[in-house]
Every structure is written in C-alpha cells, then in structure tokens.
Amino acid sequence: MDRNETDHLHIEQRGLARFFYAISIAILLGFILYVARGILIPLVIAMFLSFIIVTLKTAIRRIPVLGKLLPEFIAYILSFAVIALVLITLGQIITANAGAIIKAGPAYQERLIAILDQIKTFLESLPFFTDWFESNVDVDSLRAEDGSITTAEGVSALITQFQQQLLGFISGIASEIGQAIRSLAQNLVTILLYTSFMLIERGALLRKVGIVAGMQEDQLDISQIINDIGDLVRQYISIKTLMGLTTATFSFIIMTILGIDFAGFWALLIFALGYIPIIGAISGVMLPSILALVQPDGGGVPLFLLTLGLLTAAEQTVSSVIEPRLMGRSLNLSPLIILLSLTVWGSLWGFAGMLLCVPITVSLMIVCTQFQDTRPVAVLLSDNGEISPIKRLARKEQAEGN
C-alpha cells in the first residue's frame, strides 16, 4: 500500500471516528438532559426570564423623565416584581379554573355520550349504511360470545371504542398540561431565586466567561456572542408574547360572545400554547372547540364549527399576517429544524421542552457559529444557510485593516 492510499485510509478512519464520537456525545448529552431535567428546566426558564427582565428594565429606563431618574437597580427590582406578580397571578387563575373544569367534567362526559348516541342513530338511519358497514368493517373483533352481531350492535361497539379513545386523548392532553402547570407552580420559588441570582451575578458571570475565553489562543468575543443570543431571544420572546396576548384577546372576545364556558381559562391556555411551534396553535384552537361541541348548555356541531372557524381565523391572522411582519426571518431557523427540535425537546422535557425548544435551538445555533468545527451544524440548523462570521475573525480582520 503506497503512502497516498495510507493517508486516504487514515483520513477516512479519522472521519469515521469523529462521527461516532459526535453520536456518543449526543447520546450522553441527551441522557444527562433527561436525567437532570428536574434541575435544568427551572434553571433554563430562569435564564430566559432574566432576558425578559433585562428587556423590561430597558423599557422602564426609557420612560420619559421618570425612567432617567430611576437608579438601575430600582428598575431591575420593578421589572422582577412585575414578572413575579404576573406569574403568580396567572398560576392562581389557571389553578382556580382547572378545578372548576374538573368538577364540570361529568356533565361534559354525559353530553359527549349523548352526541355519540345521536351520531349512531343518524348512521343507522342511512339506507346504504348497513351494506357499507358489513363490507368495510372487521366485525370479528366486535362479535358477541355466541358469534352473532347486528349492525346496531356493531355501530354501538365502534362508537364506544371511539368514545374511549377520544376521552383518553383529551385526558392525556389535560394530564400533560396539568402536570406542567403543577411542576411550574412547585418550582416557581426556585425559578425566581435562580432568576434573581442570575441578575445579581450577570456582570461578574460575563467577566468570568470572558476570562475563560481569553485563555484560548484565539480569543472569542464572548460579550458580543452573549449579546447576539440575548438580542434574538429577547426579540423572539417579546414578539411571541405580544402576538400571544393579541391572539388570546381576540379568542377571549370570540368565546365570550359565543358563550363558551371558561373563556378566560382557554384564552390563557391559548396564550401559553402560542410559544409552542406548530402544534401549539392547533391545540389552542381545537381544545375550546371540542369543549363547544360537548358543552351541556347550547353546545353542539354548529357551535363547534363556528368556534373552530372563528378561532382559526383569529390565530391565522396573527400568526400568518402580523407576526411575520414583526419577526421577519431574524431567527433564521429551518422549519424542519423547528419541528425536530419540538420533538426532541418535548421528548426530553415534556411540555416545558416544547415551550423552550425555539429559544434553546436559536442559542445553540449562535454558539455553533462561533467555533470552526461546529459551523457546519449551524449551517444545517439555519433556514437559508447563511450564518454570521466568527466574532474573533471579524475582530482580527478589523485590527489588520487598521
């Protein structure tokens, strides 16, 4: 074997080794993120809350006359107090409404059973349904012990199965959301403590990270990298919050006019689900629409269709018309990557992971752009393949130009 073939073989071996090394690191990180989720989720939420508080502090300092007179630490305290008050108030409202919904649950279940009975009666009245049922439905799994089955019994069995599956689906979603709310309420004090200490240590932490970066041969512009992350995350959270409030307000007005039960609770849920890409909007529209279908007083198919149509129109107006004009393409995240990150973080951290998937992925992409070995990862995460230059290289080029 000549030298060129040997070098080529070594290159292939190194490439294969790096591939398996990266896979091993990814599996290890996934395991750590899953096992330590009880510690990491409050910490990450606190980090993003600190971004929001800094944004709110900046807004307070820009208030004419009064803002300039306020010391910076007073502006921080006011911002922290506003966020804490909002979180506590939302928690109390959601908890109170969730209890009322649970108490009203049996009435909604009875209404659902009545609607399914109406569907069964309607299907049996169709002249062609008996022939269709016997030719298209596997009746073997529906037969009685004596082996006989009538069309009516078969339809009843299918309706019962559908009812159980639908109730199981709704219960699963409610359980997941309830668990996330309980977890957030239980960790609220911890999150606020983390947030307060992050704000106190913010300047010192930036200096220490800068010192660590300065120990490398090519210094990274850490402050600029963190500013980039902060700017994008703050922009994303601010616009999503504004759009969520707009959608929730429109939805609350629509549901109040239509007489949907617990309109305030559903509006808050629509606001919270607005932070979850793709499935958040779908869930936010479908859940109150399903409630309209089974609502004991005045519910039914017409109310379901009307609620579904109006809520969808409100959500699409905000998310497809208003939000793109404000957000633009500043995040530069591929839609496929957003969907994958939603799946991955949802699997690791549940409902909290779905809420945080976009800010985490944006932060990851910005960090990956600053290291030569991980820039290909940033390109794959991006939407258009264009990523920012490495900050240290930009600084060196400027120095050489001077």
Automatic annotation (TrEMBL):
GO terms for biological process: transmembrane transport. The chain crosses the membrane at residues 20-53, 73-94, 242-260, 266-294, 301-322, 342-367. Its main location: membrane. PANTHER family: AI-2 TRANSPORT PROTEIN TQSA, TRANSMEMBRANE PROTEIN. It comes from Aquisalinus flavus. Pfam families: AI-2E_transport (PF01594). It is a multi-pass membrane protein. This is AI-2E family transporter. GO terms for cellular component: membrane.
